[in-house]
User: Fold DNA 3'-5' helicase from Paenirhodobacter enshiensis.
Amino acid sequence: MSDYDDQDPFEGALSLSQRAMQAARPRPAPYLDGLNPEQRAAVETMDGPVLMLAGAGTGKTRALTARIAHLIDTGRARPNEILAVTFTNKAAREMKDRVGALLGGAIEGVPWLGTFHSVCVKLLRRHAELISRDLHGRPGDLIEAQHSQTLRPNFTILDTDDQIRLMKQLIIAANMDEKRWPARSLAGIIDGWKNRALTPERVPSSEASAFNNRGTELYAQYQDRLITLNAVDFGDLLLHMVTIFQTHPDVLEKYQRWFRYILVDEYQDTNIAQYLWLRLLAQGHRNICCVGDDDQSIYGWRGAEVGNILRFEKDFPGAKVIRLEQNYRSTEHILAAASRLISANEGRLGKTLWTEAKGGQKVRLIGHWDGEDEARWIGEEIEALRRGAHDIGPLRLDDQAILVRASHQMRAFEDRFLSIGLPYRVIGGPRFYERLEIRDAMAYFRLAVSPEDDLAFERVVNTPKRGLGEKAQQTIQRVAREAGVSLLLGARGAIQQGAIGGKGAARLREFVEGVARWHAAVLEGQDHVRLAETILEESGYTEMWLADKTPEAPGRLENLKELVKALEQFENLQGFLEHVALIMDNDSEEGEDKVSIMTLHAAKGLEFPAVFLPGWEDGLFPSQRAMDEGGKKSLEEERRLAYVGITRAEKLCTISFAGNRRVYGQWQSQMPSRFIDELPAADVEVLTAPGLYGGGQSAAAASFAAYTGGGVEERATHADVYNSPGWKRMQAHSTGTAPAAHRKVITLDPDEMPFGIGDRVFNQKFGYGEVIEIEADTVTVEFDKSGSKRVKAGFLSVAPSPTDDVPF
DNA sequence: TTCACCCAAGTTTTT
DNA sequence: CTTGGGTGAA
Assistant:
């Protein structure tokens, strides 16, 4: 963030003669070494519009970073005249590192290299005052005269949580039933408008019926309210900048002149607002280089427009289109399978990926009885790969990943891996800064920095519980509104007026005084790490979690400690809050060798020697929704997701599906994914888990056989799997109940139970544990390795003795 | 005001 | 089967 601070675009542009001198200086260009001809063209075609169509694994980041280095090295632009935008902080960081490595430390300044949002924050802070509230009288709205009518440079960036709460207030104020018209869905609608760069007055009349005919009205109120609070949401960062560029040609021109070269990563993921922003900036010189892959566009559901990339040549006539088609990642069969699959999509720009890595393993396809068998088999397969049981040689766990369509699929794997003690890491779960306790703590910090932050006030005024319920909070709101002051001052006023009764008043006074004290400490410049600790102590927040008996409480305290530790890297609380608003990364603990589990979306841009793609069943992948709604378009997006999944694999890609799956607690029989039919038989090897057709064998025995390598038979095509009698038999177990022949659930009478409370028991899945409670045939067991679970008695056996070793 | 219970609903996610 | 939110009683 601080990277740009010393780079005012309005200062010190190089004169032309200076540029010429720089250009004349010959230098070796090591960054060009080893580039293939297409990559080289992408680097050396510096002027005019360039569209780099870079297929999966074709070295686009390499080309992109070399291009930046080349622009600087040839003197075309000073580093900070280059604008390079990415979607994620991770991509930005990687590019920064690589450009830095290419150029060495010897250059002045750095490129404007960041996410769309971080660049926009920088720009918007300079021009915040140009965003003003629309005053064309809306009776009854929430305008308060004493508040400023424009955004100010020190605006705060709201997170999703704040947005929702704000919208909820507006919905209630509009006398709408917040149950029928949930704030979440309004947030979705408004977000969609912002993604399309639509301000409230520009929302087309055809959409006037949105949100019970009041969508646009609430949108306008929401935007007003944000300016009152001197706040913006994520969508505003782009929307406001587009608005400024459109309404203030002078401002736009300055930046058009300043950013001489523009580079865009993942262009297929841009939404309309981002597209307009780019087009406005590039309009003058047209030195824009967009890199993308239409086949990897998987964010349509959140506003990304594949159309942006498809019509690049129309937007920028004479654009040079460069295709990167040599794939350096995957072996032949993997690439062939992915290419064939994606060829079912229409309206592609079209690429033909090829590789020099001939041969290698075919894509493997395997059907399982149910989701648990699938998890079990994959766990064993991962351990087999680790031992080097396959041709590709031993793999570390870090080299293997499981990519799922929906996050709820992760659970089966976590459960299984926990019980067999296989280390794993979940990527992209709830992020650190989105956790409840972290947001609460941050709200306290926000109040300390700016006591007028009403949203922060609302969040923590009664956390921990201070006996301030809805009524008390309404009183505070009323007093504050009448006096036209912040909620904190309103609270103070309410206490003085005696409007808050009982013991709540004393606790509230304590809270208000606390905030005043902490704010004073911030102003004094007191050490912010110590102050943060003090705040959490004095507010009773730490104590609240210490007193909490739920199993999560220790973890939350641990997170709070981590938060305080993270503060050390910053100069003060303000700096920290600014950073966190945009960078919601969770630094995944590196180091230990672990299998990765993540969604397909989270896997974009990553690669692994071995990849497992479970759950390829109609209704799961493609998802039910994609099949029901959205028609061909959303089905094509699912197919691209499948393409992304397969192309993550370097050496081994294993696709699997299950015949039965528990969906919301109900057993359902599943059909294999339609995408499986689209894989080329010649590049696929069908594995058949023994026992799948046997009927009588238990799953454990079956997967044991698979695990030892025995009995894996090869089939001609995957269609054989689900046209076979065995598969049909699995389908015969219809929905509702557990597939009985397989599951062997034994219902036991409570008095026939072979064990009682306190006994040691064993379960195939969770290992050893102690019986806590028995309820009919459901037993609650505290397992040694995997915590407390409720298990049907039929799945348990009496454990020989508590001292026996756990066999994993 | 708060805690305990009942009920409805349930992709993908970055900033 | 979970989870979150809303309702009712202490």
Notes: Chain A has five domains: 28-127+248-325, 152-235, 363-423+593-692, 437-579, 743-807. The first strand of chain A starts at residue 50 and ends at 54.
